[in-house]
Automatic annotation (TrEMBL):
Residues 56-499 form the Amine oxidase domain. Its cofactor is FAD. This is Amine oxidase. The lineage of its organism: Bacteria, Bacillati, Actinomycetota, Actinomycetes, Kitasatosporales. It comes from the Bacteria. Belongs to the flavin monoamine oxidase family. PANTHER family: AMINE OXIDASE (PTHR43563:SF14). GO terms for molecular function: oxidoreductase activity. Residues 1-41 form the signal peptide. PROSITE patterns: TAT. Keywords: Oxidoreductase, Signal. InterPro entries: Amino_oxidase, FAD/NAD-bd_sf, Flavin_amine_oxidase, Flavin_MAO, TAT_signal.
Amino acid sequence: MASERQFPRNPRLSRRSLLGGAAAAAGAATLTATGSGTASAATTRQADVAIVGAGLAGLTAARDLVAAGKSVVVLEARDRVGGRVVGLDLANGGVTEGGGEFIGPTQDRIKALADSLGVQTFTTYNTGDNLLYKDGKKTPYATDGILGAVPPIDAAGLANAAIVQATLDDLAKQIPVDAPWTAAKADEWDRQTFETWLRANAVVPSAKFLFDVACTSIFSAEPRELSFLFVLFYIAAAGNSSNPGTLERLTETANGAQELRFVGGSQLVPIKLAATLGDRVVLSAPVRTIARSGGGYVVTADGVTVTARKVVVAVPPPIAARITYDPVLPASRDQLTQRLPMASVGKAIAIYDTPFWRADGLNGQVVSDTGVISSTFDNSPPDASYGALMGFIEADEARKLDAASEAEVRAAVLKDYARYFGEKAASPTSFVLQRWNNEPYTRGGPVSIAAPGVLTQYGPALRAPVGGIHWAGTETSTHWMGFMDGAVRSGERVAKEVLTVL
Ligand SMILES: Cc1cc2nc3c(=O)[nH]c(=O)nc-3n(C[C@H](O)[C@H](O)[C@H](O)COP(=O)(O)OP(=O)(O)OC[C@H]3O[C@@H](n4cnc5c(N)ncnc54)[C@H](O)[C@@H]3O)c2cc1C
């Protein structure tokens, strides 16, 4: 049985290995290895609200409930906070992001949270040309064209792509983000995949290629895996209450979701947030059972049992399905969680003495039709004291590598990096890999996805509380679902929801 660890209110002892390098970089939250931070195997706690999951959603919910004077215990399965947001330690003493990393315009809630915690942002490196690698040919292209960063495909493909993009944005405007299943054409859109729709609309092969790459980059899923209604919802959700979502905001670096990064790494946000909650956050405590008892609930985790009036489950839907509920959940809720699988993603980051591609006039961003990595970013720190190339391993390419050794993945990734940036890229000083498909308590990423028929049949069960059990997590958000911002919004929403019934 895993031992329970807690955040002390006045943290003193730094345990870098538990929290990732971001913790030490911040000198922020810390854990005790022994003494007051370690509880015996059979701790019992009582709280107004038990929260399952110390990702951004669960921690934000805890912050708001505590601010409203309620007692909470946050139970986290891992030995760190942040969930899909994690800092990876580098051999050179730096830290890089293994999961959620970028933020951009209209992602107001994650920005406000980071600001409140003193975590600063910097602009993602975007100076110089992008690279298109297609049909064995490398073509640099500007990021500041009239239409933004448009890959140099043939004129017919560009014209077709422009129409497809405008159509997607127009259709997305017809989606109510709080209930996409009520859109007038929801049934029609939810009985086809994005692939089916693209084949009928992105009829020029080079245009289809661009949308295929955009799809794997946004969802880490192939177009054939996604309901068209789900894709339109995701576009509609890429905005806020005063700015409707657009596809461009999802895909762009400047003025888009990849515009900014966090100084010291994104995991600083959940780490600092958890520090404000002190010993209310219990680590290494995977929740196994949520059972109704009297007027409340008994939440049983490894090493700790919490008795609470209400429960917030802030984990991805398919992972929430692995908890035992007593009494069993309504069929609609259980079947929903059986039908929202995690997409497939990994991140590979190669470290170099310098970001040498910058001297070649490149910004480190690639769009490619070849290899295991079809999109990359310059993940170097703000002072460029070393170079970092980050690539996503997505969808079919991720699944192909699930059983590969780390050495095999590294070799495949570096082959791609050398193809894009030259032979220097084949010899990094170090290399880190985060394979989300293999991670317990996430099993994929960046987000749960919906195939045809899921939203229209089961959508209302996404947020509907079941008795005193309330649901949070980025997958429940009406704006920026799938992103850190959506996670924070969901935590804020669920806290309000619980406060109305406490
Ligand atoms: C590779 C990758 C890249 C991404 N890039 C970006 C990006 O650039 N920008 C962006 O905004 N977003 C990005 N995201 C998405 C973003 O990270 C997530 O949307 C967000 O972090 C989700 O937060 P959450 O709190 O909803 O869920 P999670 O972070 O998944 O938190 C859930 C928590 O619950 C815990 N848990 C699970 N089961 C149990 C249990 N039984 N008992 C107790 N605890 C449990 C987990 O360990 C986890 O800590 C990316 C994600 C990935 C994987």
